[in-house]
Structure formats: C-alpha cells, structure tokens
Amino acid sequence: MFKQIKTIKWLGLILLLTITFGACKKTVKGETQIYPSPDPVGTYALGADVSWITEMEAAGKKFYNAAGEQQDLFKILKDKGINTIRLRVWVNPSAGYCNTADVLAKAKRAQAMNMRILIDFHYSDSWADPGQQNKPAAWASQDFTTLKTSVYNHTVEVLTALKNNKIVPEWVQVGNETNNGMLWNDGKASVNMKNYADLVLSGYNGVKAVNPTSKVVVHISNGYDNSLFRWIFDGLKTNGAKWDVIGMSMYPSATDWSAKNTQCLANMTDMVSRYGSEVMICELGMPVSEAVACKAFIKDLIAKNKSLPNNKGLGVFYWEPQSYNSWSGYKLGAFDDSGKPTVAMDGFLP
C-alpha cells in the first residue's frame, strides 16, 4: 500500500510539472510568454464590450451585483458568465478615452480577471459604423498608399503596446461595422471595393506581424442580411483581402428577435459553407425595458451560433451592457437604473 501511495504521489508531481511548464511558452529570446487567459483556445466566448467603463467610472458611476453590493464591473460580469471582453480603439480621440493608453488600462483589468480579449479597431478618431467611417484627422490628407501604411502602423503600434504588457488578444477586428467599407471615401466599398480590400489586408498583416495567433475579424452589422454579407465578403475575397472570422451585429426588438435570429442562423451557415469562415456575434443589444425578451434572444442566439458545423461558431458579445440610466443616451444596455444587471444578463448563464 505504501508503495502504491508513493507511486501516486510521484505521478501527481509529474502531472503538476507537466501542467506548469505546458502553461508557458518560451519565446526565441527566452522570455516567458504569458497568454491573456488560462482558458484553452477554442472555449466558447461569452462576451461584453465595456469600452465606456473608464469614462463612466470617471463620471462617478458605480456598479452593483443583484444583491445590491457594490463591485467592480468585471467581477459582476464574470459572475454572469462573461469570459471575454471587447475593447474599441480610436486613433486620437478628443477626450482620450479609447486611445491606446485607455485600452491598455482596460485590457489589464480584463486579464487580471482571467478574461480573454477582443480588440476592435475603428480606424477613426471617433465612432465608425454603417453611417460614418471618417478618417482620423491626422490621416485626412494622405494618399491611398500612405493610408494603407497608416492602417498597418496603427495596428502594429497598439498591439505592440499590449504585447509589451504581456497581453495577446485572441481576436482583433479590422474595422467596425464596415457595411460599406471604411476610411471613406478612399475605402468606401460601393465606390472602390479593391481599396477597401487593400485596407483590410493592411490591418490583417499588421495583426499577424505582432501576434500571428490572433484571429482577424471583419465585422458587418445586420447579421440577418445575407445579401449584404455576400456582397462584402465576395468583394473582399475577389480583391485579395484576408480574414479569419466573420463578425456580425444583432439589434432586434422584443417582437422580431425570433425571426431575425432564424435569418441570422441561415446567414451564419452560409458564411461557413461559402467561405469556410468562423463566425462571431461581435455586438448585440435590445432595449433595457425588454429585458425578459432580451434574455430569451441571447440564449437562442448563443444556441444557434454554437450549432454551426465544425465548431465554427465562436461566441456572442453584448455591447455596453453596463450603460445604465441611458449613459450617453444609449438605451440598449442590460443594467437597470440602480446600476444592477437586469435579467437579460442571465442569458449568458448555463
């Protein structure tokens, strides 16, 4: 019996050493590379974009768990099943929020909570979305060749700043809701699809130059609109762009979410079969007043994304769920007026 116990102890020690050394990877220079999370690559992403958090905290906003206890937002979200944080990046924002330093501060907090990270490049000084894709002021007069270089350099600079702090995002978006391209008018897809594809490729190459393991996401809104997605991704493919993941946004109402989710599933399935891409819902939201419907919407969309063949569905992200009291006029959050999560956030729980 003693010999058996001794053998078991030795086997346990060997297993512990194997796990310990396997969790780190030596770089060519010999430093230990620390990954953003102990979660194995491939774990399904249950995410939240909380890019407003530092600005909200500076304005005195506080957050509370369901019991009314004040807590750090990241802790509250983690207890609701969130394992991944998405952070937007602006080039030179007037108030400083979402610049490189601000993104780094938030990424450190996410990593401290053992959360994975998605970085979202807008390639703008402010919001980039289907209605606006404005060049950063510093890039406004650049010719197209220089513009491509600026996209590459900005991507490299931000990711290098993160990497120097041992943060390697698992995913990186090259553009935000680029339904008609980005960096208008040079990169407007309806005007010049080739230019848009070249800009995507510049971003892709910048990501891979710093972090070859990070997956590059091209993100389009209206995830239920198959014709839009075919137009964009056929155009990108034809013109030599590269990507790893197709990202979608979904913002339905309490009355149409089920139909929109069904259309989204058909679109996601088509993206997998047509391009072989993985698919992620990078943004979702619903009016905070529709929390019960929102919970059902989230659970259903997660199930549909997870149902894609060959585990091609990667995850689902709520956009700024913590924006209570209509922060900045936004009414699609998932926290109530007292700063506590609504039942909508239970959609991320098992």
UniProtKB/TrEMBL annotation:
The keyword Hydrolase applies. Its EC number is 3.2.1.89. One of its GO terms (molecular function) is hydrolase activity. InterPro entries: GH, Glyco_hydro_53. The keyword Hydrolase applies. Keywords: Glycosidase, Hydrolase. It catalyses: The enzyme specifically hydrolyzes (1->4)-beta-D-galactosidic linkages in type I arabinogalactans. Coiled coil: none annotated. Belongs to the glycosyl hydrolase 53 family. This is Arabinogalactan endo-beta-1,4-galactanase. It comes from Pedobacter fastidiosus. The lineage of its organism: Bacteria, Pseudomonadati, Bacteroidota, Sphingobacteriia, Sphingobacteriales.
